[in-house]
Prior knowledge:
Chain A has 309 residues and is an all-alpha fold. Chain A has helices spanning 2-6, 10-54, 71-78, 80-111, 118-126, 133-143, 150-156, 173-197, 202-210, 215-226, 228-242, 247-253, 264-273, 278-304. Among the domains of chain A are: 2-45; 89-259, Orthogonal Bundle (MetI-like fold). Helices cover 72% and strands 0% of the residues of chain A. Chain B has 301 residues and is mainly alpha-helical. Chain B is 71% helix and 0% strand. In chain B, helix 5 (91-122) packs parallel to helix 8, helix 5 (91-122) packs antiparallel against helix 11 and helix 13 (250-260) packs antiparallel against helix 14 (265-285). The longest helix of chain B has 32 residues, at 91-122. Classes of the chains: A mainly alpha (309), B mainly alpha (301). The interface between A and B is large, with 116 and 111 residues.
Amino acid sequence: xxxxxxxxxxxVIHAGSRRKAVFRRRIVPWLFVMPILVLNLxxxxxxxxxxxxxxxxxxxGIRPPTFIGLENFRTLATDPSYRHAFRNNVVWLLxxxxxxIAMALGASSMLAPVKxxxxxxxxxxxxxxxxxxxxxxxxxxGLLSPxxxxxxxxxxxxxxxxxxxxxxxxxxxxxxxxxxxxxxxxGFLLVLFLAAMxxxxxxxxxxxxxxxxxxxxxxxxxxxxxxxxxLIFMLLMTAIWSFLTFDYIWILTQGGPAGASEVLAVxxxxxxxxxxxxGYAAAIGLTMSVFVGIVIxxxxxxxxxxxxx
Amino acid sequence: xxxxxxxxxxxxxxxxxxxxxDAAVPGGRRDASLIPNYIxxxxxxxxxxxxxxxxxxNSLKTKAELAKNPLGFPQKIVFSNFPKAWEVGDFSVTTxxxxxxxxxxxxxxxxxxxxxxxxxxxxxxxxxxxxxxxxLIGSSLPIQLYLVPLFFVWQKLHLVNxxxxxxxxxxxxxxxxxxxxxxxxxxxxxxxxxxxARVDGASExxxxxxxxxxxxxxxxxxxxxxxxxxxxxxxxxxxxxxTEQELFTVVTSYNNFASxxxxxxxLTSAASLMMILPVIVIFLLLQRRFIEGLTQGGLKG
Lengths: 309, 301
């Protein structure tokens, strides 16, 4: 500024063009980012930070909130439905760390050596992943119904143990919903694993075979180490998502029967929009983020400790 | 705190882009030894597609037949379930609502996400690391954390029960994925054209619009498809932010429809089929782009 006013000769042009260059190098890039950044701050970061505050209040969404300290968290610690929901999230975590991973690993190692029809199989397994959750849920609600569904058919044809309403029984409801969610999920995993397997050098398999390795040896000594980064990444994502799962449970049972399939996300939804305990709901949402944070920290810690994950 | 980088996936999975069946595959055993593989694969095929086949069968049955034959092929094929479901499900309205949401969101994500991606890829934006970090953290925050305060803020701003208001949330939440994917496309573009244009006096805006966007259109197409699919299928936000019946999306109104007609499976099956057929067809036509986008943006369940 001062240079421009004190010397009204070539310096003006020089300073002006330099200012222009600075503007172009430093300001313009931020102008390109600004619209989406502002929107993201307004939608994600702002409300997320305010949730920290609301979790310490008795806010009901309408009246101004009163600060009540850690009261919500004290309530939460003794709330049996919170504990129950958390336990269900852990059960969900264990189910999804095992069943879909095993299915996708098995199927992708079966599919990897196949050439004829490979693309067809892959597409077919992937299709459920692109369908909306409400459709999948309603389709399986029918298919799992005791009178007209597949369990009834199996029962009529002499397969024992299928004469019950899997979605209506508190003992089976959570695995049943997990089954439905997994139907749409495992094919996605398969495609990821398959893509990773196709990057494993062929020679590794050839030399394993020269050493007399069985198919199982190949799988555990070549395939698994070969896709390890993808596998670990998906285990991590599964662990994160397991604490956030909502859609299938809400659509199929709304947490029922009698709270048997309630998870934390369902609890947040009910407390906020049914019971108008917005402050309490924010507190539950905050604990969910803490669990996600813990998952990520454990992962990072193991990696620092030299686990190659 | 180290976050699961979306970008690391592109490094892990270069072949997700072009899954060539002929790439080095484990095995390479003779065809005869693949028979067990085919048996397992076909069983899994039945598991994946069987329910959809039954859905199609049921959409073509009369109510009376479905009661007797809930899983098998229809004895007498009727098409009347489709117009009826279209009518009682109010599909002409909900389809329009969903398409409107998809359109606003896709345009918004591509435009604003594209601008940000350009800045990150080509303009050496000061503070790029910080910005990337923020986008990664923001995209891995659970929606339940900010859902409640967001709802009440949106209510104050009269953005609840407003398609534009919901689209704004979609644009914001889909943006990080879009930015990272578009950036990875733009980084690969040679700088020569841009620099030539800059020497000729083009502004960054002109370089973006006339050179970078046309050259990175496959990235825009991929992101557009994935975002469109995500918005079309989205349930939680649409349920919370649209509570008036005439604003419902295909998905939220189907959910009501399915509980209202839970006893009439012919009708719900026909409605389901009408909703998913366009999705399946578009997916099959553009499967490479879909899979590329979905596997690389895998941060959403």
